Every structure is written in structure tokens, then in C-alpha cells.
């Protein structure tokens, strides 16, 4: 107990200045943000404030002239879409929690004009149907002008509001129909005859609407003592949104397919006769995340059901080859649009949809329905591909492209584990996603945001929540360790000490939670509560290895030791050497005990528990990367992991850590030969990489996009050799490849690698580093110093002379 108290005192003395800093990091503290806002949170009166509801808010105001700038800040609970003079301007807010509720800042001057103007917002609350990723208090909208000039748009009782009766939730039984965990929220059933068409336009008459109800002050972070929402500026950019045409009509039922010629390009309308039932299956050709938009006319009394799926199912509920549609059916979430007979009605769901396939089911009544157009608006976090990778194996191009598509679709206002089923941010997934972001895009803003999210999620026991933001508490103890690893990753790749320091107290608390669960007699972790998930490999029950819940799991103990060493690096860097030394000593003690109790000398691998009844690749992988195995024995153990088919196998997720073990063992050259799982997915017609091997739930899962990182970090061997990426290590692992060429973003510029391997003479090429950046090139035990600019590489494969 004395040791723990002393450690906590050391933390307070050492890191208190960092904890006092703004947790958002480098956010601009302008006067409107540091003072109390004048705008109020408003809502619709006389409605249950936490129930499902869709609301229209608007206010007219006059301007004497055309402003050059007119900056406002806007947020809502759950979500909003803002219009100015009928034009869609911005959507949000980025999901957070009630203590960190984000608002968007936008200059609306380009949408304004002299004279009368109108600002309007569509606000919706999904109530009990809300996605689990959605934290909420009640229905609300807030708008705040930047300065005195813009205060006329501040939300207060001068706004009018209408509760829309057009919307009802549908597709609320997705989990039952798909027999899968699905928590993204409901579909939209929209009745056009009950919709206030043109409500956002300048000349709309809102005379019959109610006066908005003021429900709370707008309180920024650091202000107020009785807050509903504590507001912070959005710390990530706005979404990318661009039109995306569907590629093909796979079949049509109930009409001649020739009638739909030109429909997907928007050049030809299609008339569905009265009293008809028509269905068509549309194929985007690749998985996507988008807002579908359907434009139609007429068809009073008809219905149009839009169903979305990543893949179709056969009669055995198997997906098979994703390109095949014959004999299969679409089972998925859906929306319903009910036309009112008027011309050019546009249906767009309230939230984005994930799909490769869209099935359109039309049923008309007494009037024909004209379908003018159907397309999607691709919507994701605006990552840009600033990296390149090429090799002499052209099949690698497809893995590179599909990996990046997978990563893109799994990035929104947070990282998503999967866009179709959950849209939740899990730290286990996010660690891999964040590294992909740094290497391929160079954009670290979403990584910073995710580190903060998990920091904010901490519970009193010391754990961070397994997924966050989330309206339901879920603790995955192993994922707390991966969050610590992600802090370490950020420290190695970015020079940003003030931002990192704020996490040290949380790291210490989490490691103390683990320390209290060590069986001191045996030197391994005892029983671990909550959900100690490791990997969705079938022999693990719900992803949990043997010994995790009843004690003495080598997998969990070695994972803890691996993380202790990373934490030691952090604490040593930030001026707490005694704390760092204690972590290293504890890691060594855990490694020694686990090796003694669990290493099977006869089989040459690590058992999952001391009774040596179960053996997984995971245990031996963690034994290597934690340093449990002596350096001289790591290569032999890793070769066993690769070749011993009796071991419980890793899935796509934990292959990321298998690759780390390859590098630790000097076997990085074998990474290339182990890409067959990704080639197999491509052969099955997947256009994003799936959650697990077949049969799989999700066809798009971020943790399977790791080749986007490893083509650069493992094959090309580009890795940081010092914190902040101040030094660069280039240690390629080409395997059977003869040529590689890559470009990777670095905070100081670009790292470029061009290498050719001559099997007789060695490796030749160039490595280019940003000016002022130094590093090392390593190849088969040889080393060459690298400097800023272009470095010529010439090394042979012959061993060095003694």
C-alpha cells in the first residue's frame, strides 16, 4: 500500500502541470469559447423529450448587406442537419459524451444575402432506438453566433418548431432477422403526405408552428456547475461527401429490365404502372458508406422499400462468393418511402447506410410512380491516401486498395469497428486503424480524438471502456491494455508531449488494476473479470482463452507484461524513472514465472495455462513480443507458431500481432507468404476485408485492413527508431518479392523507398528521408546510416567477414 501511495504522489508532483492543460490539446481558445454563451438550448414543447422524434426548427432574420464572413457554432442532441436559405450547410454533431459534447463551426456567409434570410435545422432523436454509439440527454438544438454581429441567430424563444409526423422508426428487428449483433439504429419510414415540404426554404410559411422552448443554457467546457451538455469545439474535420453512382442492375422482377436502361446514370426515368409490384437488385460493385437519395414523382399511395446489404445469403444463410446473386436473397436493414403523388420528391435517410447491394421493392396503388434517380452520397472521414506502394507482384495492388477501402469505410466521427453492424469505436480495433491512418494518410486527428475518447471513458476502477462513446457500459480489460499501446504508438510517431502527458495518470491507474489481480504465489494473473476478449477464433469461448476467467492465463499475463514495458518507456521519458523501473521489474517477473510454468519444452511452444491442456498461437506470439522468450530462442518459437497446425489459430485481427512477432524474431521475410488469407477474401469477391474467416458476420472490419500498415512498416520496413519519429529505421522484409517502391508521409515530409533485390548480389536502390531527419537502413545484419535527402543503398547478401 505504501508503494502505491508513493507512486501516486510521484505522479501528482511530476505530471500535475500537464493535467492542468486543455485536454483537447491545440484547440484555439477564442473569447466566445472561454465565456458563457448567449445562445440557449431549445426544444419542441409538449413532447416527451427523450422519445423518438424528428423536428424542424427555423428562424427568419434580416441583413442590411452581404457579409464577407458570418461564423456560427451549432450542435444538437441526437443529431442535426443545418440549412441556410434552403441550402444544406453542415451536419453533426460529432459524437461525444455529455461531458464533451461537440459543436461544429461554420461560416454561412456564402449562403446569405441582403434582406430576409432563414436559418433552419432538422433535428432528430432516435429515443430507445438510438445507436449504442449515441450518448444522449434529451432532444435539443443550440446555435451561437461568433460575435455580437451574429447574435441574431442565437437559439432562443424566437425560433419556431414543428414536430414532424412523417417519420416512424422501421427495421428495428435487424438483430433477429440477421441473427447478429447489430446496433446502428433504426431505418426511416417516411410518409411524404405528412412531411412539411419546403420547410427549409426562404418563403415557407411557418405561421402555424409552435414557439421553441428554452431548456438550458449553452455551457462551454470549464464553465457552469449544472450542465446538461458541456460543449467543446469539434476536434476533427467535417465529413467528406461526394456523389457515387451505382454500377449495375443485377436483376429486375415484375417489369422488363430494358425499361431501366439509363436509370442508374440519372439520364432516364422509369415509370412503375399503377397496381404493380416491381423489385430490382442494384450493385454498387464495391462496399460503400453513403446517404442514398431517391428522387420520384407521382405514385400516391405507393411504397418504396430500400434494403441494404454487404452481401446476399443463400438458402443455408451462407454468403459464398459475394459477386454471385442467383439463388440468393438480401436480408438487411431497410428504409421505406411513401410518396404523396407530387412531383420530384426526394427521400434521403436521416443517417448514412452501408451497402454493396440495394434492393428496391416498389408497390404502387392507383397511380403510377416515376423513379427519376437513385444514387448515393459517399460519406466518411476525409482521409487522403498520401502513401504509395508498388511491387513486382501485381496481386499486392488489390490487397493494398481493398485494405485502404476497408479503413476508409471504418472511419467516421470516430473509428468504426464495422460500418454495417455497430459503428462503435473499440480500442482493440482502433490501435490498428490509427497506425493505418498515420502511415497511409499522415492525418493524426482522428487518432488524437480516439485517445481522448477512451481517456474520457475511464471508470473508477481504473479501466477504460472497451468501446466509446457508448450508451452502454462495456469493460474489456485487454482493450485497456491496447489503449495504453496506442498512447505508446502516438508517442513514437508524433512529437506531442503535452498531449500525451494527460494520459499518464490513467495508464498508472489501469496498470494498478492489473497489479491487484496478480497471483503473487504463482507470479501470473489470476481471474480477470468483465470480458477478457482476445480473438474470435472458434476454440476460444466468445473470444476468451482458457484461464482468462478462472486464472493463470499465459495469454493475458504476457499481454500485461508487454504493456508494462511500453508504459515503462513512457514514464521514463516523462521524468518518472522509478515508476518506469518498477514496471520493467514487474514485467520481467511476470515473464519469468509464465515461462517457467507454461513453456512446453517438449513441444517448443507456450501453453495457454500451467496445466498445458490448451495451446494457442496467441500465447507464443505474446511470449515473443513481451520478451518472455530469450532472444536466441525467439526464431525457433515463431517458426513453430507459423508451421504447427495443432495450435489454436489467430484470425485476421491477431495476425497483426503475429507480424509483430515475426519482426521480433528476425522472420519478417515470412510476412509476404502469409498473405493467403487476404488473397482468399479477394477470391470470394469481397471488396472490403471481413471480420473473421468464413462464415463471417461483417464484410468490412477495420482490424483486417492491417496490410495498409504492414506493406509499409513490414515489407518496406519503415518504422520509427526514436520517439516522435525523430529517427527512421528502414529494415525491409521482401520475402519472395524482387522489387518494392513506396512513399509514406512523415511529419517533416515524405519517406521514399525504391529497392530491387538481386538474388545473387543483394539489394540496390534508394531511401529518401525528409531534410533534417536521420536514420538507419538494415539488411541481413548489415547497417547503413541514412541522412536527410536521397541515400543510395548497395548491400550484398554475403555475411560480413570476421
TrEMBL record:
Key word Signal present in the record?
yes
Keywords, in A-Z order: Signal
In the UniProt record, does the keyword Hydrolase occur?
no
Write out the GO biological process terms: carbohydrate metabolic process
Leader peptide range in chain numbering: 1-20
Residues spanning the membrane: none
Q: Which residues form the Alpha-L-rhamnosidase six-hairpin glycosidase domain?
A: 386-708
Every Alpha-L-rhamnosidase C-terminal domain range = 717-775
Q: Which domain of life is it from?
A: Bacteria
Please list the residue ranges annotated as the Bacterial alpha-L-rhamnosidase N-terminal domain.
Answer: 68-216
Q: Which Pfam families does this UniProt record tie to the protein?
A: Bac_rhamnosid6H, Bac_rhamnosid_C, Bac_rhamnosid_N
Q: What is the protein's name according to its record?
A: Alpha-L-rhamnosidase
Record organism: Sphingobacterium olei
